[in-house]
Amino acid sequence: MVKDNSISAKVLDVIIYITLIFLMIVVLYPIIYIFSVSVSSQQAYESGKVVFLPVDFNIETYKIIFEAGTVPRSFLNSVLYTVVYVVISLFFTTTMAYPLSRAKERVPFKKLISTIVVFTMFFHAGTIPNFILVKNLGLMNSMWSLILPIAISTYNLVVMRSFFESIPESLEEAAFIDGANEIQIFWKVMLPLSKASLATVGLFYGVAMWNSWFTAMLYLQSDTKYPLQLIIRHIVMQNQMQAELAAMGDTAAAENATNTESLKYATLFLSILPMLIVYPFIQKYFVKGVMVGSVKG
Amino acid sequence: MASKQKNEKKGIGGWWKGEMHKLSKSKFLMLLMIPGLIYFIIFHYIPIGGLIIAFKNYKPGIGMFASPWAADFGLRHFIRFLSIPDVWNYIWNTIALSLLHIIWLFPASIILALFINELRNVHFKKVVQTISYLPHFVSVAAVAGMLTLFLTSQGTQAGSADLSNEGLLNQLLLKMHVIPEGISFLDKAQYFRTIYIASDVWQSVGWSAIIYIAALSGIDQELYEAATIDGATRVQKMWHISVQLLKPTIVILLVMQVGKIMSLGSDKALLLQRPVTYPKSQILSTYVYNMGIGKGEFDYAAAVGLFNSIINVLLVILANFVSRKLTETSLW
What we know:
The complex is a heterodimer of chains A (297) and B (332). Chain A is mainly α and 297 residues long. Chain A is built from 16 helices and no strands. In chain A, helix 1 crosses helix 16, helix 4 (70-101) packs across helix 8 and helix 4 crosses helix 11. With 332 residues, chain B is an all-alpha fold. Chain B has 15 helices and no strands. Chain B is flat. The two termini of chain B are 27 Å apart. The model of chain B is unreliable at 1-7 (pLDDT under 50). The interface between A and B is large, with 98 and 100 residues.
């Protein structure tokens, strides 16, 4: 690119850099602040001394949280729901996306089935009929109530179908000539070629489940089954910390209720932390998936 | 080939025969689709059938089919909804939040993409992109949690040494004596939209920019070089080349967003609303939740939900029509 050294170009550069640096600060500041409060002393927080970095660094709060057990348990629940959901939804999504990606001469009822699928993108029955269905199916208060109703996301199905469509049919024809049957082609040719796509769609599903709270609130009654996001809502949002602490029993925290603020901040930080850790590794898959979805969606 | 043409002429019977012929040749493909089809029937089409309760006086004890039909030819619940004093308020709240979302997020993400596109330092560019996408991965529950903690207040006076009951924003404002006493922002209806939209922008501006960044990176660099030789400044190039070439993308996304104007989900609003802020924070989807799950009026809430869904479908069809006219691009 030809360099432009005019004053207006330099001014533009300054504006761009200032804006982008400001944006990065705005994005990161709340997250850093949450962490700082969680590891600062309660006195420092109360007097408003914690503004950016931790004051009187200590990890007492985290010890209390791990001893009390509510947060670690809901953390494990979230991991369990996410893993099971990713496996199940990938199975349902790939088995349906693959036939829908093949030529219509080969796939029975392709057009009818595509219509049935796409219609659900635009028309939803809504919260109430779904609630009644889950109840009638006897799924209430079980992890399946969170997983089965969303086993396929139509959007992810379309993304997966586009991935399969990008694999040329000539490859299948070659395998046919070599004597492979359809099952072998799907299992030994198509799936191994789609590893990156499976990772992308699997991550879409995983992040969605990890971050969801609404269906858990609708369908789960026993708090031992709550996922982490719902615990966040209860502890942070509804000022139920005292009740939670009492429920936690004989920990030091119950008497020392002055710690509640940093406990809230620490819980909140723990809910974001896993995403912060895996995010740099999964980012590129997501960007790729967004591209496919936006072109074909 | 000849038989296929014949099939098309034969109508339904011929179509059925043709599909069955395909089925006999590739049973495996059909077999693969069966789990998915069962899923769609159970978890999408049965609930659509379940919408029948919108026209009934639902009695959980005897089930939705045995329940008696609602008065006024089954339309009782719809009439009731349209005659509550707040109905237009709730509809307007839904539209206002969607519109504000579009008004703020669209320009912000386009400008962000243009700025990122101007960066020549590859490392800085990568850092900016990575950090700006990050909030997209933070859950709505955590965002609402942050807002609750940061905006909370028990009305502590300015100058007080004990700020333990004040959130971050109130602590800062009190220390700088901007406000005489702490403000509990989430309990004030007039702040609801600002809080909702500002956190939307925080969470999505980077992510929404991805699509524009991709479109910009596809632009032929020779266009910029030719413009430079013709004496164009960088600002002129941004406007006359980058923005002009983004226009089709912008138009499509904008039209589609407008089509979704009434389908705002309840997730975030439920977390941020308090009964005192209902005048601004009650949107259609939260109303369905509050009436249905909260108060157990399943039939009435289902009717409100159905009303909302029908408007959504009509709006999407309209948006698609407009998009096809403007850009020859459509969803189907």
